[in-house]
Task: inverse folding
């Protein structure tokens, strides 16, 4: 829980457009974390051993714990958390429906690559928000301890069966493509978020060139993650 | 985490039969909590609203948090937690396979009635264990805040559609029957647990009459829970 009573950037009161954009972003992240939690729990059902099930359960619980602060910040901004989250339900649910893992390894890669991409994207956007909201967002994106677990298990799987590398590399590309499709669709529908990114009278924004650079950074980090797993991006 | 270095009852070293029985019981409870966590997460997917999903997620996380201390105690008793839990996988998995909820309400009743029954049973058995193990078990059975949520939602569902009461009453009976079937099967297979309950040279046990009284208490508490939900037992 943050103690700060001032919800705005600096000491200025929040203008309504800005407030709506912050609520949108927090709602998107919160619903994303809730659906990531559900997905991790479903992955646990595919875990080959009880140790793996426990490890996935611990990650899922860490993911769920992040939700609390996002919800508090939404309430501070005068929003109904469930309503703010509900706006992004369709986009995330579509993403998950189109990328249902067919086995344990696809689930692991999705958790690592999907969460990593989402976290990079939110961190980029958080730079355009007030300090309090930014801090809540950054905290909600903390590592849930999954990197080491996923890297170790995926690499071990590939060592046992080399064909897995080709299948998982294709899977990583599909995840990236589907994430971009849904992100673009959501951005096009959410005016407040788009105008936040475009900037305002007293706020810097992203011009097309800056958007392009952001996209380059996101794809570079995606490629780094794939290579950590021993996969071609 | 308990600080106590002495794993046994009082200061006496543990005899091997006793240790095996304690490991069995802790393994059963731990696997039961892990599978309860998985089942709650699957219920969340059926939740009609985002608020309901969040409420179920919070219960599931509380359930998962209990696992930590059970696991620590298993390690203190010289057991491999995953191995101890694995002995009970089939029994619990069969129970869940035979009682897969067909909707949100059946899931709620199962979480409440099933967890309640299991908790009552473990509390009864914990009375025959050393103080340290007993304390870990009692703590692991703490309320996860689900009672009020389940009672409110099931009662509201029945108020909207009276036919639901008949269907859920039958469902409660089926849960009880299936739980007894699996519990008896597991008890018959686990010699250490059975001999713990039968008592030893320097430990009191349960004779047939005491077992009968325990069974009566368990069914009475089950009937109380059903009536809290507004259902016939």
Result:
């Amino acid at each position: 829980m943050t103690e700060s009573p001032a919800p705005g950037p600096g000491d200025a009161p929040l203008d309504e457009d800005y407030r709506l954009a912050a609520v949108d972003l927090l709602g998107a992240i919160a619903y994303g974390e809730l659906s990531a939690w559900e997905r991790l729990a479903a992955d646990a059902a595919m875990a080959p051993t009880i140790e793996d099930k426990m490890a996935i359960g611990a990650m899922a619980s860490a993911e769920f714990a992040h939700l609390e602060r996002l919800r508090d910040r939404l309430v501070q901004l005068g929003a109904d958390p469930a309503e703010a989250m509900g706006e992004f339900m369709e986009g995330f649910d579509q993403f998950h429906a189109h990328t249902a893992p067919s086995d344990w390894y696809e689930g692991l890669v999705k958790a690592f690559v999907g969460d990593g991409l989402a976290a990079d994207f939110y961190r980029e956007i958080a730079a355009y928000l007030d300090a309090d909201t930014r801090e809540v967002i950054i905290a909600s994106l903390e590592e849930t301890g999954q990197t080491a677990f996923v890297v170790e298990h995926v690499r071990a799987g590939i060592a046992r069966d080399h064909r897995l590398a080709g299948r998982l590399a294709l899977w990583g590309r599909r995840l990236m493509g589907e994430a971009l499709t849904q992100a673009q669709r959501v951005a096009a529908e959410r005016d407040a978020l788009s105008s936040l990114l475009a900037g305002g009278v007293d706020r810097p924004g992203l011009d097309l060139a800056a958007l392009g650079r952001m996209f380059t950074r996101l794809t570079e980090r995606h490629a780094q993650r794939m290579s950590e797993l021993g996969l071609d991006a």
User: Anything to note?
Assistant: Chain B has one domain: 16-228. Confidence is low (pLDDT under 50) at residues 1-11 of chain B. DSSP finds ten helices and no strands in chain B. The first helix of chain B runs from residue 16 to 46.
